[in-house]
Amino acid sequence: AQSVSQHNHHVILSEAASLELGCNYSYGGTVNLFWYVQYPGQHLQLLLKYFSGDPLVKGIKGFEAEFIKSKFSFNLRKPSVQWSDTAEYFCAVIAFYKLSFGAGTTVTVRA
Amino acid sequence: DVKVTQSSRYLVKRTGEKVFLECVQDMDHENMFWYRQDPGLGLRLIYFSYDVKMKEKGDIPEGYSVSREKKERFSLILESASTNQTSMYLCASSLPASGDTGELFFGEGSRLTVL
Questions:
Q1: Looking at the complex, does the CB of residue A60 fall below 8 Å from at least one CB of chain B?
Q2: Looking at CA atoms only, how far is residue A96 from chain B in angstroms?
Q3: Are A91 and A102 in contact (CB under 8 A)?
Q4: Nearest chain B alpha carbon to A49
Q5: Which homologous superfamily is B4-114 in?
């Protein structure tokens, strides 16, 4: 069975700091990879996705993620965070209809 | 925009009660999903359906059942609610496209408390 690991449970940082959230998955076949974000009180929404092609994927709000196949990783990055980036971030892997999620990382950005 | 609507945002039920959670999507998506979201555990798949009257077990189906009589509606049923089913329940839908490449669109969630 596939699994998704997110390395950090809670990250606290100041505005303008850089953010990197780690994600590793265990599935060995072809995968499609996602990062979802859930802002306080809102529903989950897609941040970015990787299906094929350029392993560096750009998403909304200045986020990007890099797919490294040899490391089974799909880490999320943002060079300079804002207070509004405070949210919970979920990495997800999909194969054969099933989308499996990591446990999530809560990001708190202090003004 | 895709809209996934969950009928109840907040429910409080007693142990042993039967609970229905309803989900409707308006974009003619073939695939529909039910997840539960718990702190520190992320989202865990309960059941999914890729067509009317079709259902597949997810990772944690025990204590739950589902119904998909119409394409736009996917219901989650707790036959006899228990306190460990207190959780946030999320419904999602997606196009089949190539089946497993579809982005999921989520509803706002139904927070269930079982006393």
A1: no
A2: 5
A3: yes
A4: B103
A5: Immunoglobulins (2.60.40.10)
